[in-house]
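Example 4.3 (complexes with small molecules)
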Amino acid sequence: MYVHQRQGSLEVICGPMFSGKSEELIRRIKRAIIARQRVQVFKPALDDRYDVSAIASHSQRKHDAIPVKDSEELRRHLDPEAEVVALDEVQFLDEGLLAVIDGLAARGVRVIAAGLDQDSNGEPFGIMPILLAKAEYITKLQAICMVCGAAAGRTQRLVHTGGQVLVGAAEAYEARCRHCHEIPDGTGQRLLEEPARGE
Ligand SMILES: Nc1ncnc2c1ncn2[C@@H]1O[C@H](COP(=O)(O)OP(=O)(O)O)[C@@H](O)[C@H]1O
Ligand SMILES: Cc1cn([C@H]2C[C@H](O)[C@@H](COP(=O)(O)O)O2)c(=O)[nH]c1=O
Ligand SMILES: [Zn+2]
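Answer. The structure with LXEULUCI bound is encoded below.
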């Protein structure tokens, strides 16, 4: 006879900026609360754009969250009774989070992690590729390309400052499709020019 235990799992919500990751995370958090589950919500302290101690979407939806500077601080705040642990902006958290998430899922906790799968150069962002490999469930969202209106899987940086990490919103970024996304090469030239016909 099988004995079913409460199954832990990892759900990852990814996609470019403005694709609705935070809205979707808040929706799942609200449903878990309606189901009277014990929910804990975290975000990296680094992301202080709209609110220091809340997940906030670009459409002003919010949910209280514990800001943490790294995975060690997150580990210290964990409620041993939590049934659901939700994390926003996980691309900013360190590799130590992987062991924390594995430990939670092994204890039967439902972990929901939202974050950018790609940086503004279209490269994998932080621990996201590993989380995607480890997840039981993946939701990849698309925004609307601000140039052509197509579905957008990438984020265009509009300012020529910063390295991979530059906290910001619409003043510094917009959603773009693969075709309209440009990777700066330092000269202001397009890197991804379409080959001329006949080439
Ligand atoms: N280019 C865009 N495509 C889709 N939604 C956009 C765009 N620009 C602004 N928005 C707004 O952003 C909201 C999604 O915000 P949010 O959940 O914070 O996204 P993410 O967490 O993926 O950055 C949308 O519901 C919409 O109101
Ligand atoms: C593409 C890209 C984004 N960021 C920053 C900008 C924002 O502070 C967050 C993403 O927030 P969202 O909830 O997904 O809108 O990440 C960055 O630092 N570097 C990048 O390349
Ligand atoms: Zn486009």
